[in-house]
Amino acid sequence: MTEIRTLLVVGGGIGGYTAAIRAARAGLAVTLVEGGPLGGTCLNVGCIPSKSLLGSAAAHADRVGRSAGRADLAPIMARKTAAVARLVGGVQTLIRRNRIDHVAERAELLGPGRLRLAASGRILTADAVILATGSRPARPAIPGLDLPGVLDSDAAIALDTVPERLLVLGGGVIGMELAQVFADLGARVAVVEKADRILPGEDAGAVAVLAAAMRRRGVAVTTGATVERLARRDGALVATLTDAAGAAREVVADRVLVAVGRVPETGVLGDDPLGLRGPGGVITVDDHGRTRTPGIFAVGDVCGGPQLAHKAAAEAEVAVATLLGRPASRSGRVVPRAVYTTPEIAAVGLDAATARMRGPVKVGRFPFSANGRAIAGGHDDGFVEIVADATDEQILGIVMVGHGVTELLGEATLAVQMELTLAALAETVHAHPTLSEALAEAAHDARDGGAIHLPPRPRAGGETAVAGAAHR
Predict the structure, then answer these.
(1) d(CA 458, CA 334)
(2) Residue 3, phi then psi, degrees to nearest 5
(3) What residues act catalytically?
(4) Any residues with CB less than 8 A from the CB of 49 and at least 6 apart, and which?
């Protein structure tokens, strides 16, 4: 393998800057090409600002209630902007201290190791290239989508006033998080989802808990419906919907948020003379991040799959290790998923329905209504559910819904990644009182119904499995 001394990284999001920093620390001369702000989608218009808004909106609703009118967005947006600026500044400092050359232009890939800068026309060359250009909001083919007042998620997090009525098209992660934000800030929010339930990729039981919480917030959710068109009437936006039975109805709103997903941002490929675009417009890569052209790698959203910042960072680590000649692969790495609504949903591996399609399983569930920390904190809705192979009790997946459950994802992901058994997790001592105890209790429940803080589970034949028999 040819020794790699120089590297071009295109894209300054978490995938790009992780690759650039890791390569620079390995001794490579690295140039990071990013025409927009460093930090990419996640830091500037995605993960970080949305979490700031979620926190501020929830605090506002708790303080004044949802019947007190629409919130003043100025201090809330100022807090969001300050958080983003602080983190962008941190990335800028890391780029500088790792002696990475930052070129603030957009670029086009000409061939292996060759980029042309869009503004200056300058040609950059290196031994290898990593493409980490991310994704952009999808624009479905709906008539009227270009009307004033129709927003994508990037524009929604920069609004200066709370709309009186907000219609959200799409009940996925982005749609539901922003629906909660604006409902908590005093808007009347309606969500339309084409699938038969919101968050169709997540566990049905966990989603049911969240759906109930959204109803309590006053969010009106319509599932199994398609938006046919948008129009303006009497100063408002009118969406015409068709349900699964073909019946049509209208929803009136002041603003419409289009949150139907994101698509790979592959403008860097130009006319794609190398043929790197694959099905669905993504850049096709192998388990090491290599494209079909030697010396060109790709990581993150532009490669397809789950559009998650932590996935992009992990793929960047693999790509850099591979170009340095070190063993690394994406294969076998489990990727956790998180929804930051209230309650949160956190999951890794297989849910029970998917696991059952592959063979016999053991399933254990522990509700937060039986967890001391959850009850003490006043957030006792939700549960932890663990799915394991019925034969060897290897943990296949963990689903959690409740207050703060995303902070339990590290342990849950480790359990699935390291192929732990139910016994290994059940026998791990968890501090009391913590939410994490629910993981051990769910493991006990899956094994033999032996969760200490649940009633004994009846066994087949009328016998009863008595939990904690040794603790007399």
Answers:
(1) 34
(2) -65, 135
(3) 432
(4) 80, 83, 84, 157
